[in-house]
Every structure is written in structure tokens, then in C-alpha cells.
Design goal:
Blueprint lengths: L21 E4 L8 E4 L34 H11 L12 E10 L18 E10 L14 E9 L2 E8 L12 H8 L15 H8 L5 H7 L14 E2 L4 E4 L5 E10 L8 H10 L3 H11 L5 E9 L1 H6 L19 E11 L3 H6 L12 E3 L3 H18 L78 H8 L3 H16 L4 H8 L7 H11 L38 E6 L5 H13 L3 E6 L5 E2 L5 E2 L3 E2 L10 E5 L2 H8 L2 H12 L4 E3 L4 H6 L8 E3 L4 H10 L11
Parallel strand pairs: 13-14, 13-18, 14-17, 18-19, 19-20
Antiparallel strand pairs: 1-2, 3-4, 3-11, 4-5, 5-6, 7-9, 8-9, 8-12, 9-10, 10-11, 15-16
Bound molecules: CIS-heme D hydroxychlorin gamma-spirolactone 17R, 18S.
């Protein structure tokens, strides 16, 4: 290939090095940050901009001689490569981000002076990162775990970070215990495993000694911890915050994200298998959905309450192991979040984004929740460690999109230092720089505080079982079964019998039936004697439908994926009708075939495949269809992957659409037809089948 650098002949094995390096200002940073863009037709350069003649060989003394230290291009390239990694987040290391916007749908100036909520239709850009907590950066997406749901709002009054989770409560009440919790959840320090799992002794040893975790444990053992997609999960700010209006009046507030597509989770057996088949299942799902214009959307809801409610509520609103049922304080929808743009570069955006709970804007304030107060120290500290210095706010993804004026300067990688002489305040210079603004500036709500200085946990934080029981009672029987199974699974991985028993001894305080089922499932001789509660539980809390996934599921197939297994010789029109029906319902289709090159229909038309059967087990789909000719079905019946495709779809209670010819495969896979297995005889059956799939799973199969 030709090299464009005059006077330098191309070397024999040199490929094209004609990358364009286009430098442009990153919008919104106001700084001097540059991005590299590669097009065709420009010379490769070093990081110093020096054109490179040969990108294949090091500089040598003689054709077969030693390499020379003088080769600055080689040294720069290797040096930079050696420094590519930054420390992964100590928690929430594995995550995936996307850009979007937030729009206020109901103005609430009577509650908050925050500019973004001041007027209906006001929009601000956002960046959202979803994550798991315990696993490292390379762990699988479907770990049983809490999901992070962190939102950065780039408002005109600065960045507001709402760093929440997909579960509205937390394991612990005081930030002092966070390092212990995380040490216990992460791989055990001597052996370095298990990765991304709480199913091990250290975790359950710690939890069994922490009654305050029991409410959260009910949530993490529920299907909330194995969501089908980031798009189908709720988000919560968890803590109680404050809204403060322009008159300085304050209300307490809890934040909720409600997915437009409803709630959906996978089954545990699916989760385990998805992790093998596609460890990137969640990030791929988000990337694909945004890529094809099916933009994920959530409503922002607020639960607003005053001191009188807080005083009368059964629990302390500063206790992050408690929620406020929506039946007690309704969720008022005030905005929507739409994710409409994937990242250009994973590292620059998703990896370098630095969320900080202390990033709040005028009109929003903290409460005294001791977990939140601790977080406000931790996040700034962790970003400094992770991103290497105090100037991480200069990185485009973290930079505010509004003007900044301050006297902070220097430090590693400083991108925007002030011009002029004044770098302190007060100063007497003519162009003396910015001054504090009593009108616009952030002011803390002047809450009265009093009392002795002590290391203490308030008495009002003492009831650890009531809301755990309320959560359990709010679930459908199917969901209760999943919680019991999850506890049995996790505790069966615990090797120390005493830890199993110590944990189970909490369960009678939540639900006698649950305690019995888990004891039986573990093979304990009898239910262990219940731990004495620190404070007598409230027993008459009403169940809350909002806490169940199944009661808040979607009614249609929108945003979901159908896997269609096909063979040569099928009815191409039926395939076309099925694809149309799925797309009309807002879903997507993937064609799975014995060979990735595709198939030929009975009419001789070639159909491309998206997947070869071995790489596309049915766990990757919300529902499946099998269209097979007699010969095709016979071939599939001889393939283990095809038999598992059907058997798993059936075991996972999926709706299965089958053409007449495909029945041989069902038989070989030992799958009995039931009302969830729908025959596809004519094109019109496609629409009916997709309607069935709106229910997501054929739960009745459980009873057969
Ligand atoms: Fe975090 N948490 N956390 N956390 N957290 C971090 O900050 C911490 C807690 C949450 O996508 C760290 O940037 C303490 C609750 C999310 O980048 C760190 C305590 C909730 C993310 C940290 C908590 C969260 C983090 C690690 C107990 C839900 C990922 C890397 C007081 C409301 C954000 C980082 C992203 C990340 C500390 C508890 C959510 C170490 C000390 C409760 C979504 O600062």
C-alpha cells in the first residue's frame, strides 16, 4: 500500500496507515479537550503529531540486529499501551452507559427551586450508567445482584447526580458498615473466588449477623436481582432527600424511575445459562435497542411528604433499609427520561463517568440519612483514586454543560485554568473574577440540629423484620416460590452448616411458611429457633401491589425479542407473517438456523440467519417459534442444541409457536403440547401467537 509521506518508500509488509486524525473541540466542555477521529486518507502520527513511516517494525541495527532505544515511536506506543487500564470501581465495576435527555412533564416550582423542574417541557441532557455491584469489570451481566441506576443530569445550574439502584432499600443503615458488606460479598480474600456471586460463606456469615439486612435480602433473593433488561427495571434514589422551594420551604422526597415497558425478570435457570451464552446480555440489549431507535424510557416519580408524615410513619424516613409504600404516599410523575444515544467510546464515557452523590443543585438537598451522609464523602474520594487526580471534572463526560467560574487550578491533567492575574478571592483587581451569589447560589436547608455527639444508631432504626414481611406478603405465590428457591440455592452453596442455620433463624420473623420451605429445602431437621427481634415487628402492614414484578408486568410484546428457529423447505410466507406480527407489536426477531449462512424456503427464497443454533439457545429470547419442514425437523431432532432450544423454552414457561413439521422436534425433546404451545397453521395464526406472548410466560405450565 502507498505511504503518503514523501521520501519514505513503503516497507514490504506495511498495511495502509492512512488514518485521519481530526481534532475537534468537544461540545459543551468549554475547554481545550480534543477528540481523535479516524477517517481515511491521512497520515498516522505519534501522540506528539509526528508522522509515522512504518507501523509494523521496530528500528533495528542491521536487518536482523537488536532493536534500538532510539525508536521513540515504538517506546511511546508501548508506554501508552502499558498505561491503558485505570483502577476499576471498587463496587459497581461492571456497567454500561448511554446518553439521553430528561424532560419535565409537570412543573413543581411549589416544591423545588431546581431550574430543571421549573417549567413543563424543560429538557436537560443526561448520561445514565447501569451496573452490577459485586462482580469485577469482566463479570457476567446476569449475576444475582442489585443493579446500579445512576443518572447524571447536566442542568444549567450544574450537574445533579442521582446515584440510585433498582431496589428501593439497602443492606445497611450506616455507611460505617459499607466496607464490611462489600468485603463479605466480593470473592473471599484467601482463595479469590467466587466471582460476582453472593452464594458463599462470607456473604451469608456477615448477613446472618446483620438483621438490618433482612428487608434487602428479600429483594435480592427476588427476581428483582435478575432483570430481563435494564430497560425493564425500576430505579430508586433510595434515600430520603429534600426539595427546597424558592421561599426556602422544604419537603422530603423519594425518587422513583418507572420503566415505560413495565417490569420483567428472567428465571434463575435462565440467568445461569444466559451468563454462559451471552455474558454481555444486558449491555447488548441496551446497545441494540437504542441502535434501532427503540429508545428506552422511564418516568420520574416523586413521593413528597412533610415532617408530620415523617413523624407519624411506622419507621424512620432516614433509615435506608425502609421504603414508603406507594399506597401511603403516592408516586407523582413529574418527568421522563429517554435514552437515545449510545456512547462513541466506552472508556471515555462509560468508564470515566464519575457519579457523586454530593452533586446536587439549588432546590435539592440531602437528608440526615447516615448512609447518604457517608456516601457524600466516598464518591468524591473514589473518583480521585480512580481517575487519578482532582481534575476529573475536566473530562468531557463529567464536565458541566453550563459555565463554571472558580479559582481552583493546576493539578494533574488540568484542562481549563483561569486566565488573568486573579486566582484568589477577595481580590482588588479590576477583572477580579467570580464572586459568591446570594441570589442564585446553593444554600443548605437550615434544619435545626441538636443533641450529644455520640457514635450511635437511633432507636427508631430498630425494626428489621416488618417491611421484609410486608415485601414477602406483597408477592404473588410464584414470586414467593422464587424467593424461597433463591435462598435455598444460595445457602446450599454455603459450606458451614451453622451459617445456614443462623440465617434461616431470621426467617420465622418474616414468614413462618418461608422459614419452613427453606429449612426443608436445605434438609435441616427443623426450623431453627427464631432470633429475638431488637424491636417488636409491626404485624399488620398492608401488602403493596407496587412491590411485585408480576403485578406490574407489560401487556404486550413491545421491546422484546422472538427467536425463530428455521430450516430449509419452510413456508416463507408464514415466516414473513410471523416477522411482521412481531415487528407490528414493537418487538424484534432473530432468525436461528442450523447454519449461519441461512436457509432456502419451499419457494426457493434464501433467508439469512442471524445465529447458528449452537450459539443461540432459547434463553436469549422472550418467546420462540419453530418453523421446520419434515426433513428440517428430522435434522434438528438429531442436534442437541436444537432439542435443548425447545426443552429449555418449555421449562422456562415460554410461549412456543410451532409449524406442523416441527412437531417431530418437540417429541424428541420430550416437550408435551399445552396451551402455551401454539400451532401455526396459517399466516393469521402469527398475530394470535404474538398476542399470547404479551403475557410473557405461560405460568400455568408450572401446575402441569
Ligand atoms: Fe455506592 N459507591 N456506596 N451505593 N454506588 C460507588 O463510587 C458507597 C450505595 C451506587 O455507575 C463507588 O464511582 C458507600 C447505595 C451506584 O459509576 C463508591 C455506600 C446506593 C454506583 C461507592 C454506598 C449506591 C455506586 C464505587 C454506603 C443506591 C455506581 C465507584 C454508604 C442508592 C455509579 C464509584 C456508576 C458506586 C460508595 C451505598 C449506588 C466507592 C460508601 C445505598 C449506582 O464511592
Amino acid at each position: 500500500m502507498d505511504q503518503k509521506i514523501p521520501g519514505h518508500p513503503p516497507s514490504a509488509n506495511t498495511q495502509s496507515a492512512n488514518d485521519t486524525v481530526e481534532r475537534d473541540r468537544h461540545p459543551g466542555t468549554g475547554g481545550e479537550t480534543h477528540q481523535l477521529r479516524h477517517d481515511d486518507g491521512e497520515s498516522l502520527t505519534t501522540a506528539q503529531g509526528i508522522p509515522v513511516a512504518d507501523n509494523q517494525n521496530t528500528l533495528k541495527a542491521g536487518d536482523r540486529g537488536p532493536s534500538l532505544l532510539e525508536d521513540f515511536h515504538f517506546r511511546e506506543k508501548i508506554f501508552h499501551f502499558d498505561h491503558e487500564r485505570i483502577p476499576e470501581r471498587v463496587v459497581h465495576a461492571r456497567g454500561y452507559g448511554a446518553h439521553g435527555f430528561f424532560e419535565t412533564t409537570e412543573a413543581i416550582p411549589e416544591l423545588t427551586a431546581a431550574h430543571l423542574f421549573g417549567e413543563k417541557g424543560r429538557r436537560v441532557p443526561t448520561f445514565v450508567r447501569f451496573s452490577t455491584v459485586a462482580g469485577n469489570k469482566g463479570s457476567a451481566d446476569l449475576a444475582r445482584d442489585v443493579r446500579g441506576f445512576a443518572v447524571k443530569f447536566y442542568t444549567q445550574e450544574g450537574n445533579w447526580d442521582l446515584v440510585g439502584n433498582n431496589i428501593p432499600v439497602f443492606f445497611i443503615q450506616d455507611a460505617m458498615k459499607f466496607p464490611d458488606l462489600i468485603h463479605a460479598a466480593k470473592p473471599e480474600p484467601d482463595r479469590g473466588f467466587p466471582q460476582a456471586q453472593t452464594a458463599h460463606d462470607n456473604f451469608w456469615d456477615f448477613i446472618s449477623l446483620m438483621p438490618e439486612a433482612m428487608h434487602m435480602i428479600m429483594w435480592t433473593m427476588s427476581d428483582r436481582a435478575i432483570p430481563r433488561s435494564f430497560r425493564f427495571m425500576e430505579g430508586f434514589g433510595v434515600h430520603t432527600f429534600r426539595f427546597v422551594n424558592a421561599n426556602g420551604e422544604s419537603h422530603f422526597v423519594k425518587f422513583h424511575w418507572k420503566p415505560k415497558g413495565g417490569l420483567q425478570s428472567v428465571l434463575w435457570d435462565e440467568a445461569v445459562k444466559i451468563n454462559g451464552a451471552d455474558p454481555d446480555f444486558h449491555r447488548r440489549d441496551l446497545w441494540d435497542a437504542i441502535g434501532k431507535g427503540d429508545f428506552p424510557e422511564w418516568e420520574l416519580g416523586v413521593q413528597v411528604f412533610d415532617d408530620a408524615f415523617a413523624d407519624s410513619f411506622d419507621f424512620d424516613v432516614l433509615d435506608a433499609t425502609k421504603l414508603i409504600p406507594e399506597e401511603d404516599v403516592p408516586v407523582r410523575i413529574v418527568g421522563r427520561l429517554v435514552l437515545d444515544r449510545v456512547v462513541d467510546n466506552f472508556f471515555a464515557e462509560t468508564e470515566q463517568v464519575a457519579f457523586c452523590t454530593q452533586n446536587i443543585v439549588p432546590g435539592i438537598d440531602f437528608s440526615n440519612d447516615p448512609l447518604l451522609q457517608g456516601r457524600n464523602f466516598s464518591y468524591l474520594d473514589t473518583q480521585t483514586k480512580r481517575l487519578g487526580g482532582p481534575n476529573f471534572t475536566h473530562i468531557p463526560i463529567n464536565a458541566p454543560r453550563c459555565p463554571m467560574h472558580h479559582f481552583q487550578q493546576d493539578g494533574h491533567m488540568a484542562m481549563h485554568n483561569p486566565k488573568g492575574r486573579a486566582n484568589y478571592e477577595p481580590n482588588g483587581w479590576a477583572k477580579g473574577g467570580p464572586r459568591a451569589d446570594p441570589e442564585r447560589g446553593f444554600r443548605s436547608f437550615p434544619e435545626e440540629v441538636a443533641g450529644p455527639k455520640r457514635k450511635i444508631r437511633a432507636e427508631s432504626f430498630g425494626d428489621h423484620y416488618s417491611q421484609a414481611a410486608q415485601f414477602y406478603r406483597s408477592q404473588t405465590a410464584i414470586e414467593q416460590g422464587h424467593i424461597a428457591n433463591a435462598l435455598i440455592f444460595e445457602l446450599s452453596k454455603v459450606e458451614t452448616v451453622a451459617i445456614r442455620e443462623r440465617l434461616v433463624a431470621h426467617l420465622p420473623n418474616i414468614d413462618e411458611g418461608l422459614a419452613q420451605t427453606v429449612s426443608d429445602g436445605l434438609g435441616l431437621k427443623k426450623v431453627p429457633k427464631a432470633h429475638e427481634p431488637a424491636r417488636k415487628p409491626v404485624t399488620d402492614l398492608a401488602p403493596s401491589d407496587a412491590l411485585s414484578i408480576l403485578k406490574n408486568g407489560p401487556g404486550d410484546f413491545a421491546g422484546r425479542k422472538m427467536g425463530i428457529l428455521v430450516t430449509d423447505g419452510i413456508d416463507g410466507k408464514l415466516l414473513g407473517a410471523m416477522k411482521d406480527a412481531v415487528v407490528d407489536a414493537g418487538g424484534t426477531v432473530e432468525i436461528v438456523a442450523p447454519r449461519v449462512g441461512g436457509i432456502v424456503t419451499a419457494d426457493g427464497d434464501h433467508v439469512e440467519a442471524d445465529q447458528k443454533i449452537d450459539g443461540a439457545p432459547s434463553v436469549l429470547y422472550d418467546a420462540v417459534v419453530i418453523l421446520a419442514s419434515a426433513d428440517g425437523a428430522a435434522e434438528l431432532a438429531g442436534m442437541h442444541a436444537a432439542r435443548s432450544f425447545v426443552a429449555d423454552a418449555h421449562a422456562h414457561l415460554k410461549f412456543i409457536g410451532v409449524s406442523d413439521g416441527a412437531k417431530v422436534l418437540l417429541k424428541r425433546a420430550n416437550v408435551e403440547a399445552d396451551a402455551g404451545v401454539v400451532e401455526l397453521n396459517a399466516n393469521k395464526d402469527a398475530g394470535t401467537f404474538v398476542e399470547h406472548c404479551g403475557a410473557l410466560r405461560f405460568w400455568k405450565r408450572l401446575q402441569s
